[in-house]
């Protein structure tokens, strides 16, 4: 077993540069993680604008007790949740492995953490030591998209990457999720995530995902800023979605600390299918900013209903996020992301997370069964369902407005459900 000490830095609210936050120690046996510990820096604890790295395991509620204290992940986790969120996920790991020409999942967690670079998600960074500078790497622009897609295709297929594409690696190593993507900088210095098609796609996911998020926005759900998908010379669509963990652009850019609901619940990833939306609601009550609590709980309920109506069963805990609110020293629900309809002929459908008294069964009456846990009255919950349904029922016309072709609409039509078929009548929607 090898113990490796790494330095954790934080970009504090309103500040462009970073400060040392503490020391992270990882115990590893090759690619296998054994455990982790963390010690906050004394100077960091003294800062009035210090952000808590992890609300469950590294809370700053009792700063006086943290000086020199060695902290460990809650619930027997092998890594702190917020550090896990700042590490590369499936796609980022594939990029790192392709760059280093090593087998899948063969590196220690410490190597993945360091290789991700400083453009990672959120407002923390992990480096080899306290004197190491940030490694932002090369961020591509719109004109590099064709090269990025070529590199992504080679990574997906397990092919060697030619030297001429090496410089485009840095744009994708820090991002989460399983789909090919990269961070781009526009002419104003603003950062965007470019999401590419995958070889396994059955339909135009970049175009459809953009349209689905715009549909959610019409239903009153907060989504990141979106650009119209870019169409390359070969007809390939590329989705462009803002990095909502960044504020401003160019030299004035600051960061917002981000964690996933997986971190907020303090559980291992394998437990995600056993959790439910009410678990997230309870965690928001515990860690959320009080002035935003009622709005966040209602919006979480609306997102659950939206996922039911569009058959988005990729609603796992890492696809729900929280952002740090400095003025309240607490958390708020992040904008919606990673929502993709799943075409299926199944009559009985399920989401990844539990919905209500009938578990993961994706029906509106099941969604209504725990309305009070979202701080809603029964009438208020039904009204929220009506608001979402009134928009989703028009999805075909809306998608046409958003540039989705008739053939693509046909491919995904089975994902969209009519409210009367999934409990709408039982709850008085008609």
Short description:
Helix content is 29%, strand content 17%. It is of the alpha+beta class.
Write the layout of secondary structure elements.
Elements: E1 2-10, E2 19-29, E3 32-40, H1 42-46, H2 81-86, H3 90-100, H4 109-115, E4 124-127, H5 145-157, E5 181-185, E6 191-195, H6 205-218, E7 226-231, E8 237-242, E9 246-247, E10 254-255, E11 258-260, H7 261-265, H8 277-287, H9 293-310, E12 321-325, E13 330-333, H10 364-368, H11 378-392, H12 395-401, H13 406-412
Antiparallel strand pairs: 1-2, 1-4, 2-3, 5-6, 6-8, 7-8, 9-10, 11-12, 12-13
Main traits of this protein?
about 30% helix, Phosphatidylinositol 3-kinase Catalytic Subunit, Chain A, Domain 5, Phosphorylase Kinase, domain 1, about 425 residues, 13 helices, alpha+beta, four-stranded antiparallel β-sheet
Top CATH class of the largest domain: Mainly Alpha
Distance from first to last alpha carbon:
63 Å
Please give the number of β-strands. 13
Write down the secondary-structure element order: EEEHHHHEHEEHEEEEEHHHEEHHHH
Q: Biggest sheet, open or closed, and with what strands and sense? A: 4 strands, antiparallel
Q: In CATH terms, what is the fold-level topology of the largest domain?
A: Phosphatidylinositol 3-kinase Catalytic Subunit, Chain A, Domain 5
Named at the architecture level, the CATH assignment of the largest domain is Orthogonal Bundle
What is the percentage of strand-forming residues?
Answer: 15-25%
* Structural class determined from secondary elements: alpha+beta
Overall geometry comes to: globular
Mean pLDDT: 94
């Amino acid at each position: 077993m090898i113990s490796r000490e790494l330095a954790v830095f934080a970009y504090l609210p309103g500040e462009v540069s970073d400060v040392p936050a503490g020391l992270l120690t990882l115990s590893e046996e090759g690619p296998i993680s054994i455990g982790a510990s963390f010690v906050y820096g004394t100077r960091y604890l003294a800062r009035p604008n210090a952000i808590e790295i992890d609300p469950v395991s590294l809370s700053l509620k009792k700063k006086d007790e943290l000086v020199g204290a060695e902290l460990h992940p809650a619930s027997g986790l092998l890594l702190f949740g917020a550090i896990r969120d700042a590490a590369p996920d499936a796609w980022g790991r594939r990029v790192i492995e392709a760059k280093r020409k090593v087998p899948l999942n063969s590196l220690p967690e410490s190597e993945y953490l360091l290789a991700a670079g400083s453009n990672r998600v959120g407002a923390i960074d992990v480096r080899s030591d306290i004197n190491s500078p940030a490694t932002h790497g090369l961020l591509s622009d719109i004109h590099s998209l064709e090269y990025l897609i070529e590199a992504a295709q080679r990574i997906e297929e397990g092919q060697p990457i030619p030297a001429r594409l090496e410089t485009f690696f840095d744009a994708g190593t820090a991002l989460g999720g399983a789909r090919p993507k990269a961070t781009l900088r526009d002419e104003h210095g603003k950062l965007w995530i470019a999401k590419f098609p995958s070889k396994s796609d059955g339909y135009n996911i970049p175009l459809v995902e953009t349209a689905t998020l715009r549909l959610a926005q019409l239903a009153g759900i907060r989504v990141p800023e979106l650009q119209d998908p870019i169409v390359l010379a070969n007809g390939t669509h590329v989705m462009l979605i803002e990095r909502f963990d960044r504020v401003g652009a160019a030299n004035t850019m600051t960061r917002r600390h981000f964690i996933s609901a997986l971190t907020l619940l303090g559980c291992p990833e394998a437990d995600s299918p056993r959790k439910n939306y009410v678990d997230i609601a309870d965690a928001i009550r515990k860690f959320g900013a009080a002035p935003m609590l009622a709005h966040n709980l209602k919006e979480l309920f609306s997102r659950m209903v939206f996922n039911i109506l569009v058959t988005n069963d990729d609603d796992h805990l890492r696809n729900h996020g929280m952002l740090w609110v400095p003025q309240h020293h607490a958390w708020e629900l992040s904008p919606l992301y990673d929502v993709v309809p799943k075409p299926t002929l199944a009559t009985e459908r399920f989401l990844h997370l539990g919905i209500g008294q009938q578990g993961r069964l994706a029906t509106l009456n099941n969604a209504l069964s725990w309305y009070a846990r979202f701080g809603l009255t029964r009438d208020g919950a039904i009204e929220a369902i009506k608001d979402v349904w009134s928009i989703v029922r028009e999805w075909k016309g809306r998608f046409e407005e958003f540039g989705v072709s008739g053939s693509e609409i046909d491919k995904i039509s089975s994902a969209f459900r009519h409210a009367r078929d999934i409990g709408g009548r039982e709850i008085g929607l008609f």
